[in-house]
Write a structure and sequence with these properties.
The chain is an alpha+beta fold. Helices cover about 25% and strands about 50% of the residues.
């Protein structure tokens, strides 16, 4: 399957429609992992009586962070974007007063049709933290084996449940190590 497939084009159009909406209301839910070993935040965007988009930012106690963006149509996940990254101090740049950092991120995109991933793509970038965004944009897309799609779909389902204590518990179970 390619990005030119009509199913993928329909998913991409849905993504663009959601991104362009200005009438969505936002709610938030924060959670802490046991023992202070991480934290996260769920942001839900709702319009027309339904959740259209969910975003999750989760950080571990070290130098790692994951972000998820989920896009829904009629209560079903159609697209997921997952960035998994880390950072480290870079001893070759910066000064003791202003240390520089290097970041690394792997981005996975899942196109979902009728509950099944039909196309999975990934890209990777590593470099100075302040330049990571442009580096990731320029990185080539490569195929992904969809091995993480089911886990991502579980997180998307938990997010879709909304800002409830039960959702907080489920997100902790799925995202806290």
């Amino acid at each position: 399957m390619s990005l030119d497939d009509p199913r993928i084009q329909k998913i991409r159009a849905r993504y663009q429609d959601i991104q362009a909406r200005k009438d969505m209301t936002r709610s938030e839910l924060r959670f802490e992992c046991a023992g202070g070993e991480g934290r996260g935040e769920l942001r839900l965007y709702k319009a027309d009586g339904a959740i259209q988009k969910a975003e999750i930012a989760a950080a571990d106690a070290g130098h790692g962070e994951s972000t998820y963006q989920f896009y829904y149509h009629q209560g079903q996940l159609v697209f997921a974007l997952h960035d998994d990254g880390s950072w480290a101090f870079d001893g070759t740049r910066g000064t003791p007063d202003k240390p520089a950092t290097t970041s690394s991120v792997t981005q996975r995109r899942y196109y979902v049709h009728e509950g099944e991933p039909v196309l999975c793509i990934k890209k990777h970038a590593k470099g100075p933290t302040e330049k990571l965004g442009p580096l990731l944009e320029q990185a080539p897309n490569g195929p992904d084996d969809c091995s993480r799609a089911k886990e991502t779909q579980q997180i998307a389902s938990a997010a879709l449940a909304g800002a409830k204590p039960k959702t907080r518990d489920e997100l902790k179970r799925l995202l806290c190590n």
